């Protein structure tokens, strides 16, 4: 082990190549993972990060919020179902919205304050109060663009919304998201989507919180039986139905696995080269009594160190890139994901160096005597 | 040259590992580029391959088709602008449709057959009439095949598939085109209380000798409350498309740099390891050009093998993609990546060439 570390100290250039290549690969892995997380969390926060246990959609909606349509009065009927603790309401409108003349595609989410389906994490200010018109909480990613007290106007709507707070992890479909009362949402929606106007007040989904000990599947069946025209699913299933989110995540996971395969190959390649270069030296050490295990341990330590250095450099590059990219890029570097990737990277390095370990054990000490070339 | 190939033959393991690493990295770059392009095509096809030259949006929609609402009488105002050859209203709705194996999400367009707004490529069958629809050919995997009758929800409109269009999806999912009247009926079934069903777009074909850009500017100036753009600009403005393009370009760029760096570092190490051999060869009269050529040939051979293998792996990956999201190997893209990889890797190998050039043959005499 000491020898292995001494070699790195005395010949840093020899390991610079593998460290540099690994740093770039880890950079790629971290950016991929950052994008995967960014896309997933940015697309799903409005549904995933709530206290609802179940979501009730209209039967033909395929559990997609934007395709669903329910009578708001259905909430009272759901509340009467055994096992239901409380019921909220959700509606979403995807439309351009302007702040001080700057227009961006946005999501306006209408919800029932204090009821299931509300965004749980307030990072600044407050949430709209029940029945409070003309106010909204913005998702926290808009903090650079919006301030408390600013007004946002959905294009085509007469009523502007004053920002009273910021909420974390509350975006929908990667759009800047505004949370307002379901009544304000409906007023604005009816103005900009005249074909959705109806005599009855409608919502798009009913988030349900279960009573303690209630069986989710049983309650879901009871709700659908009561309403007759709904499909009720656990929140996780509603999250997976958000268009594109799950597919994108699965695709990125496959790309990340392939990238790790490249990392393993690169480690294998470079350590195979280094082992060939040190063949005579390793034979000499063996002739002097060094055990295979010791030499292999040294090689493994070198691979792990090079990978760790690559991880650090790649991590720094990824952090720098995330800081440089415009805020519209959905890159999210999360500590739990980083931990998984670090463990995977070290395991990959250990796997990659296995080929060279085999070579080391097969080196004949007689080579040191010059008899074998 | 002979030496270069002989060394490749003898060092099968290390050169094989390098070729495998290059192949996987190039595969990643090709896969990402293909995936990104396919996504963009599927997201924007309805506009990008449309028969219209110009699209007219509600100005408040800022180019977002789903947010655009236009009064039906606006079609007449647009038609009266000088330079308009033909114009027609287009509607769009996100619905679900069951073609026999369960409901699926469907983007339903209402168009007027024979008028601008219809997809540019009808590849089988005919344009729809009442109670009929054409679907994107990629959606046959979702059960939307010729003569199938789909039930559209909300409501229960039954539409028979009478033709296939190509490259005409919106939102990377099943997309169908029916008549504007039929589309209105579907929306009205979803909300019988609706007092009006506005259009989403007016599609315009330019008259002879009028450019799309000029016509778009004329319409924008002549008709209040609208924004008119040419086909390419309308496709580029589909929400999320620019981000998809930029994201995949970034990933492809990083992957490409990694591949080039790996090749460059590998040959640098190999060159350092072969220093004595190079010295001996130089002392025996081999020129720097000969040795450099030999190295560059090895780089070119390995990169070409790597790219060829990557193309094969991509073809394999394309075969495993779900039929609802087909990707195809683009030989032009593979060729471009090969050229870029060769250029990048040969440039990165110049570090090794410099080392070879700096060798002093006289030093070889001491070994």
Helices and strands in order, then pairings?
The complex is a heterodimer of chains A (373) and B (367).
Chain A: H1 2-10, H2 12-48, E1 54-58, E2 70-71, H3 74-79, E3 84-87, E4 90-99, E5 102-111, E6 122-125, E7 135-139, E8 151-154, E9 161-167, E10 177-181, H4 182-192, E11 202-203, E12 206-210, H5 216-227, E13 230-234, H6 235-240, H7 245-277, H8 279-287, H9 292-324, H10 335-362
Parallel strand pairs in A: 5-10, 7-9
Antiparallel strand pairs in A: 1-12, 1-13, 2-11, 3-12, 4-5, 4-8, 6-9, 7-10, 8-9
Helix pairs in contact in A: 1-2, 1-9, 2-7, 2-9, 2-10, 7-10, 9-10
Chain B: H1 2-10, H2 12-48, E1 54-58, H3 74-79, E2 84-98, E3 103-111, E4 122-125, E5 132-136, E6 149-153, E7 157-165, E8 175-179, H4 180-190, E9 201-206, H5 212-222, E10 226-230, H6 231-236, H7 241-273, H8 275-283, H9 288-320, H10 331-348, H11 350-357, H12 361-364
Which properties best describe this structure?
heterodimer, A: 373 residues, alpha+beta, six-stranded mixed barrel, four-stranded antiparallel β-sheet, 10 helices, elongated, B: 367 residues, 10 strands, 19% strand
What does this structure look like?
- The complex is a heterodimer of chains A (373) and B (367).
- With 373 residues, chain A is α+β, with helices and mostly antiparallel strands.
- Chain A has 10 helices and 13 strands.
- In chain A, strands 4-5-10-7-9-8 form a 6-stranded mixed β-barrel.
- In chain A, β8 and β9 (161-167) form a beta hairpin.
- The longest helix of chain A is centred in the N-terminal third of the chain and has 37 residues, at 12-48.
- Chain A is elongated, with a radius of gyration of 29 Å.
- Chain B has 367 residues and is α+β, with helices and mostly antiparallel strands.
- Chain B is 50% helix and 19% strand.
- Chain B has helices at residues 2-10, 12-48, 74-79, 180-190, 212-222, 231-236, 241-273, 275-283, 288-320, 331-348, 350-357, 361-364, and strands at residues 54-58, 84-98, 103-111, 122-125, 132-136, 149-153, 157-165, 175-179, 201-206, 226-230.
- In chain B, strands 2-3-8-5-7-6 form a 6-stranded mixed β-barrel.
- In chain B, a hairpin with a 4-residue loop joins β2 (84-98) and β3.
- The longest helix of chain B is centred in the N-terminal third of the chain and has 37 residues, at 12-48.
- The chains are: A alpha+beta (373), B alpha+beta (367).
